[in-house]
Design brief:
- With 484 residues, the chain is mainly alpha-helical.
- The chain folds into three domains: 50-128, Fumarase C, Chain B, domain 1 (Orthogonal Bundle); 135-236 and 249-383, Fumarase C, Chain A, domain 2 (Up-down Bundle); 393-451, Fumarase/aspartase (C-terminal domain) (Ribonucleotide Reductase Protein R1, domain 1, Orthogonal Bundle), CATH 1.10.40.30.
- It is 60% helix and 4% strand.
- It contains 20 helices and six strands.
- The chain has helices spanning 6-16, 41-47, 50-53, 57-73, 79-97, 110-122, 135-171, 191-216, 235-241, 251-256, 259-285, 313-337, 350-373, 379-387, 393-402, 407-424, 433-439, 447-450, 453-458, 468-482; strands at 176-181, 184-190, 218-219, 246-247, 293-294, 376-377.
- Strands 1-2 form a two-stranded antiparallel sheet. Strands 3-4 form a two-stranded parallel ribbon. It has a two-stranded antiparallel sheet with strand order 5-6.
- α4 packs across α7 (135-171).
- The radius of gyration is 32 Å and the shape is elongated.
- The N and C termini lie far apart (70 Å).
- The model is unreliable at 1-18 (pLDDT under 50).
- The structure holds arginine.
- Residues 1-24 have a biased composition (Low complexity).
- Belongs to the lyase 1 family. Argininosuccinate lyase subfamily.
- Its main location: cytoplasm.
- Residues 33-327 form the Fumarate lyase N-terminal domain.
- Keywords: Amino-acid biosynthesis, Arginine biosynthesis, Cytoplasm, Lyase.
């Protein structure tokens, strides 16, 4: 073995002496026994995850306490030892809760930092905590506990947002507006109907989160590093302590699986996509060109140069941040695609992506909820807009259909009427019965009733249509479903 550095020479000398004292060489490293040289500083900096995984500490300690009790039940720890370890872990938790935890530069991740501190506080007994466990199953557990909390919290935020949207729908039940396709005025709708469209999207989001939670709610501890544990641990007992209904069935899978992270990132991406579409509409609607809504001053910012500006920064940032969450989803899928079983250090890269996506989505949800709560709707501008743009043309065509004209022919006749109305610079509603009859003798007096915005809206009278009574019925259902 050719060692050229002096540190190496020293290390090989000590290695050839009688059995070493057992002191780990890379100072402060729990795994130091096998090593003859210090870890390079650059490597320490490159491999550490402490800066971000420290937020897993409550879950890590909760998991460690359950692990102690499981070891006690397995006869690996005495009752006294287990109680002492649990007390020590609770002290460590208090230090972390109060920002009094003394982190050290050599702490590699939160798991190692907690164990190191535990041993400082309670002595060598701390060294028994990790019996029958690996950081691989430990981090898998921490992540699932974290995800379970996050998913439940985001589900609550989604429901609150839905409540606010339903409230706005109720408050604006009589407000009409243009409905659009291709950003062209298409048919008039109730603004409440438009708001409720987002409530439906968010219901699917809520369901997706609930589905993710069911699948991720499985307990991985006891899988060891990859193969299982040498100790007779009752994994179902650990699961019951941590409120998991079941345990993972394959140790290799358990330590290398990050499906739940991908699923949650997928669910968050869809939430952000929905928020982003709403944001895009609010940005347009708040513009001088539309003037459909006013965003609250408290949710806008000004320009450093142009004194008149009131900019919709919040919805713009929500729209912008959506890309970030999508990026994390793609990053995570890419991280996983080439990984052989089982644990690989690549997996440590899951956390920053997940944490950032979670924080971004939670913030965006809360901000969008508040924005919508305070939104001011310009009813008259909307009503005027709903009258224009030839949006009643479909009503005319459908009228002809009721008179026995095949729809295609009715469509063509109505197209000619629309062109006429454009040339005349008079909206369809202002054409006389005589003029209409010039295009088709089938037009009767009652056609004029069809040519009103309210009439057009209220004829869309099926489940899912924009008729007032349908929209109101849906609001009632939702109010009942969302009651606390
Ligand atoms: N910090 C690592 C992670 O987040 C856990 C450490 C596992 N390390 C190891 N050498 N097996 O994935």
């Amino acid at each position: 073995m050719a060692k050229s550095t002096s540190a190496g020479a020293r290390a090989s000398k000590s290695a050839s002496a009688a059995p070493r004292s057992g002191r780990a060489l890379p100072k402060g490293k729990a795994w130091g026994g096998r090593f003859a040289e210090q870890t390079d500083r650059l490597v320490e900096q490159f491999t550490t995850s402490l800066a971000y995984d420290r937020r897993l500490y409550p879950y890590d300690i909760q998991g460690s306490i359950a692990h102690c009790k499981t070891l006690e039940r397995a006869g690996v720890l005495t009752t006294r030892e287990s109680a002492q370890l649990v007390r020590g872990l609770e002290r460590v938790k208090l230090e972390l809760d109060h920002g009094r935890f003394p982190f050290l530069p050599q702490d590699e991740d939160i798991h190692m930092a907690i164990e190191r501190r535990l041993t400082e506080l309670i002595g060598p007994l701390g060294g028994k905590l990790h019996t029958g466990r690996s950081r691989n199953d430990q981090v898998a557990l921490d992540l699932r506990l974290f995800l379970r909390d996050v998913v439940s919290r985001v589900m609550g935020q989604v429901q609150e947002f839905r409540r606010v949207l339903v409230g706005q729908a109720r408050a604006h039940l009589d407000v009409v507006m243009p409905g659009y396709t291709h950003v062209q005025r298409a048919q008039p709708v109730l603004m409440a109907h438009h708001f409720l469209a987002y409530v439906e999207m968010l219901e699917r989001d809520w369901g997706r989160l609930r589905d993710c939670r069911t699948r991720l709610n499985v307990m991985p501890l006891g899988s060891g590093a990859l193969a299982g544990s040498n100790y007779p641990v009752d994994r179902r007992y650990t699961a019951s302590l941590l409120d998991f209904p079941s345990v993972t069935q394959n140790s290799l899978d358990a330590v290398s699986d990050r499906d739940a992270v991908v699923e949650v990132l997928g669910a968050l991406s869809l939430i952000m996509m929905h928020l982003s579409r709403l944001s895009e509409e609010l940005i347009l609607w708040a513009s001088q060109e539309f003037r459909y809504v006013d965003l609250p001053d408290t949710f806008c910012t000004g320009s450093s140069m142009m004194p008149q500006k009131k900019n919709p920064d919040v919805p713009e940032l929500v729209r912008g941040k959506t890309g970030r969450v999508y990026g994390h989803l793609m990053g995570m899928l890419t991280l996983l695609k080439g990984l052989p079983l089982s644990y690989n250090r690549d997996l440590q890269e899951d956390k920053e992506a997940l944490f950032d996506a979670v924080d971004t989505t939670e913030q965006s949800l809360v901000l969008c909820t508040e924005l919508m709560r305070r939104l001011v709707v310009n009813t008259t501008v909307l009503a005027e807009a709903a009258e224009g743009g030839g949006m009643l043309a479909t009503e005319l065509a459908d009228y002809l259909v009721t008179q026995g004209v095949p729809f295609r022919e009715a469509h063509s006749i109505t197209g000619q009427i629309v062109r006429f109305s454009l040339e005349q610079h008079r909206p369809l509603q202002q054409l006389t019965l005589k003029e209409l009859q010039g295009f088709s003798p089938r037009f009767g007096q009652d056609v004029l009733l069809c040519l009103t915005v309210r009439g057009a809206i209220n004829r869309k009278d099926q489940i899912g249509g924009t008729a007032r009574r349908r929209v109101e019925a849906r609001i009632k259902e939702l109010e009942k479903a969302l009651k606390g």
